[in-house]
Each structure stands twice: as C-alpha cells, then as structure tokens.
Amino acid sequence: SLTMSDIRNGAVSNVRISPIGDSSIPGGLNYTDVVGEAQTGDTTSITLDNGDLQTDAAKYQGQFIFITGGAGIGQYGVIDTYTPGTKVATIVKHTDGTAGWDRISSNYAVATELNLTTRYKIEPRLVFDAPDSGTRAWGRAIIENSRISGVNIYDPGSGYVSPPAITITDN
Question: What is the reported pLDDT for 2?
C-alpha cells in the first residue's frame, strides 16, 4: 500500500511504500510499464507502436501516458479510449479531464504532431485525494520489476492537514 510519511507546510513531501501486514509484496505486482515509439499522433491522440501486443481495449484506459523523447517530449495525459486494431489511444488531461495533453512544465509546449521520433511510457495513474481547501498533489509511480517501488512528487499540492489517500489506476 502507498502511505504518506510526511506532510510539511500543508503539502505532500514524501510517499512511502509499506507492507499491508500480510504475505503480499510491498508495492504490489504486475503493474503496467510499457514503452514504445509512436507511429503518429496529435493534440488529442497517439497511435501506439505497431508492435504493441495489447488486445484488451480496457487495459490502458485510465492509465498515464508520458512522452519521454522526440516530438512531444514533456507532455502527458490519461488514456481515455484505446482501440487495439488501430493502436489509437485518445488522450484527456490529468488536470481537468478535457481532451488533450498536459505538460510536465511550462518549458515544454504541446506538440501538434507526434511522429516516429516520439517515445512514450504507459504506467499506472496515481490520483491523490484533494484537500478541503488548496490544490491537489500529483506524482508518478516508479515501476521496478513490475511493482511500485516509489513515487516521484511532481506537485506537492497545498492545504493538506492530514495525509491524502492515493488511488492507483492500473487495469
């Protein structure tokens, strides 16, 4: 299970992977960790690697996709729909659920065209509960050997008075 170990100044400062008290492995097992090279894409979709073997349309839905290299580097989103036959995934923003990509930072622009240079990673989506007043924290799971070994905090949020719960989407 994922638990907060520290809230500082109303923000999430650390996430700890802790055992749940039974024989299960801390961090779970068999989380999605898929990398590939896009065929094409635009401001609301991406055509995944032709070699992608996923045949279950629901498997990728709700998970994060990050552009890690080439055209579109620095943008990310949530896979809204996936069609295995065409390899097309439609993307919605993590921040507000509207069609399109978010950016890791303002240093990156959202590419209008993705191409064969575009590299991506599909991984579990983490959603931190929102505070009563303030901004929601967000971060990415660190996947090692198909399990969550840690969390990178991208935005610590604000207004937390107690550790928020974290929902993991990995179909």
Answer: 57
